[in-house]
Each structure stands twice: as structure tokens, then as C-alpha cells.
Specification:
Elements (H helix, E strand, L loop, with lengths): L17 H31 L2 H29 L13 H29 L6 H22 L9 E9 L5 E8 L9 H30 L3 H29 L8 H10 L5 E11 L2 E10 L5 H7 L6 E10 L9
Helix pairs in contact: 1-2, 1-4, 2-3, 2-5, 3-5, 3-6, 4-5, 5-6
């Protein structure tokens, strides 16, 4: 049964943070800028007969679609943050959107490479002056968009401020950590990263187009237009593959590769004769980790006791502890 209020002893799902709301607003503004520039490039390319400009315009159109996916992800996550159908909240919606955007980016890279090869084989005339003017405007729009989508904490070391867990009258424990910046990727918003990478690839293709157009205008090196398209396609493919790798690990609940599991084992097994028989750690959303731990020991304590041992591990918020009493006399004998 769904309830709009949460009892004091209940732990609510993590709702959208201030950063999520701010990212959603910035993504919407950048989406509007991208659509306007897309229409301008396609229109100018048609009027001036520039296939390069038309291609860049349609390339920007695909990025507008990706930014639309990102904006939808933020809206969906915010709307369903308290929906009990999602056991751990909607934090992975941003990772799913980032994964989808990365796939789209990979397809774009393939199409760009194919089109560039076609142009090398069959060159097309380019209206250099008009195309340069529009390309420079496109680059300015992309740089402004990239500045708007920049991560506010990307140059700051990650750190977390934590409150020690406390027991209430119902015996439940709550551990709160506040994410400032990012640490080992746990605080990184892959949806925003995807949008940022899309804008950067637009900026990259604009720079390459400007360089090729200048070379064609000054030295009649028209083949550079196609060559720069191939270079841009390779770089875009590398970026998209990196994003696919990062988001797919999260979507498949892969264990964090930052030593969190080792930290959990150390914290539990440093006390008494505790041993961890089963351990699962995974990311729920940027800045939020979950863990399921089975402890085997001769000196069993309450689950709350073991949660306190994990209190200082950053971002570890949803923790489930199972305690099993060891019956043999020498549990650690070889």
C-alpha cells in the first residue's frame, strides 16, 4: 500500500537531490539551444548547398534526441521517486538513459564514418564562406552548452559527511551520508555525463569542420572535410564505448571497483571472530550504495551492531545484515 507520508521509523526511498533538479533544468535549456541550432544548420545547409553543413545539422538532430532522452530520464525519476514499485528508488534511470545515449552515439559514429568514406570517393562542392560562418556559430553554441552542463564538482576531491547510525525505539537503523563531489564514480551522474559528451562531440565535429573548411578555402584541400569526419567518428566511438562500459556495469549491479567490498570485510572481520560468508555491494544511484552481508560468528550480536561497524564507509546507505551463529569450535582452522 502506497503512502504519501513516511513513519519516523521507516527509511524512505532516495528522492531527487538538488543536483538532480539543477541538472534537469540545465539539460532542458541545452536541449532548446541544440534544437534551434539544428534547425539553423539544416536550413543553411539546404540554402547554400553544403552537404557538410547538412550532415552536421542532422548530427546535431540526433544529439537533440539524446538530450531529450536525458531530460525525460530526470522527469521520470523525479515523478516516480516515491513509487513503491521501484524497490530501491529510481536512481538507475539516469544510468539507463546514459546507456541509451551512448548506444545512439555509437550509431552516429558509424554513420559519420560511412558518410566520410563516401565523400572521399565522391567529393561534393562546399560553399566555404557560408558554411564557415554557420559552423563557427554552432561551435559557440556547443561551448556555451558544454559550460552549462559542466559538473560543478568535477575538479573537487570527493568527500562525504556522515552521521553515525542511531537506534530508535523500533530497533531500525538509519545511516545518512551527504554526497559532495564524486568519489570513485559513485557520485557521478551518468545521465549528465552522456548529455555532456554529446555536446562535446558536437563541439569536436564543429572544430574539425572549421579546420577542414579553412583548409579547403585557403588551399583547396577539400578532401580534409571527409578525413576530419573519419577522425571525429573514431573519437566519438571511443567516448561512447567508455560510457557504455561504465553504465552497463551499474545496470548489471556489478560490484564497485573501488575497494568498498574490501572495506566492508575489513570492518566486520576486524572484530572478534567474525567472518563474512556472503557479501553483495552495488550502486543504487549517484552517491548511494547498498549492501547485503551475511556474518558468521561465535559471538553473535544484533544486526545494528554490525551496521555501526560499517558507519564510516562512504555512500553505504542501504545495508541488510544477516547474522548466523557458528556452531563448530574452530571456525577458522585451515
Amino acid at each position: 500500500m502506497h503512502s504519501d507520508t513516511v513513519a519516523p521509523w521507516q527509511k524512505p526511498h532516495a528522492g531527487p537531490s538538488n543536483r538532480d533538479i539543477r541538472n534537469a533544468q540545465r539539460t532542458t535549456v541545452v536541449l532548446a539551444l541544440t534544437v534551434v541550432m539544428m534547425v539553423a544548420e539544416i536550413t543553411a545547409g539546404t540554402i547554400y548547398g553544403s552537404m557538410a553543413l547538412l550532415a552536421d545539422g542532422w548530427h546535431m538532430a540526433s544529439h537533440a534526441a539524446a538530450l531529450g532522452i536525458a531530460a525525460f530520464a530526470y522527469a521520470y525519476a523525479r515523478r516516480h521517486a516515491e513509487n513503491e514499485l521501484y524497490s530501491f528508488g529510481t536512481g538507475k534511470v539516469s544510468d539507463l538513459a546514459g546507456f541509451a545515449s551512448a548506444l545512439l552515439l555509437l550509431v552516429i559514429a558509424g554513420l559519420m564514418a560511412f558518410e566520410s568514406v563516401q565523400r572521399l570517393m565522391s567529393p561534393v562542392p562546399i560553399a566555404f564562406n557560408e558554411a564557415l560562418f554557420v559552423a563557427v556559430i554552432g561551435l559557440i553554441v556547443n561551448l556555451v552548452s558544454a559550460w552549462m552542463l559542466r559538473d560543478d564538482h568535477q575538479h573537487m576531491p570527493g568527500h562525504a559527511h556522515e552521521a553515525a547510525p542511531h537506534d530508535d525505539s523500533h530497533g531500525h537503523e538509519h545511516k545518512h551520508s551527504h554526497d559532495h563531489g564524486h568519489n570513485h564514480g559513485h557520485g557521478h551522474d551518468h545521465n549528465m555525463r552522456a548529455a555532456y559528451v554529446h555536446v562535446l562531440t558536437d563541439a569536436l565535429t564543429s572544430v574539425l569542420a572549421i579546420g577542414a573548411l579553412v583548409a579547403g578555402l585557403l588551399w583547396n584541400l577539400t578532401w580534409l572535410d571527409a578525413a576530419m569526419g573519419i577522425v571525429g567518428a573514431v573519437i566519438i566511438a571511443q567516448w561512447s564505448w567508455s560510457l557504455i562500459s561504465a553504465t552497463s556495469r551499474i545496470l548489471l549491479d556489478a560490484a564497485p571497483a573501488d575497494g568498498t567490498e574490501a572495506a566492508v570485510r575489513t570492518a566486520i572481520e576486524a572484530e572478534s571472530d567474525n567472518r563474512i560468508a556472503d557479501l553483495h555491494v552495488w550502486r543504487l544511484s549517484p552517491g548511494h550504495l547498498a549492501a547485503v552481508v551475511t556474518v558468521v560468528t561465535h559471538h553473535a550480536r544484533t544486526p545494528g551492531h554490525y551496521k555501526k561497524l560499517l558507519a564510516r564507509i562512504p555512500y553505504l546507505e542501504h545495508v541488510t545484515i544477516e547474522v548466523e551463529r557458528c556452531c563448530d569450535e574452530h571456525p577458522h582452522a585451515a
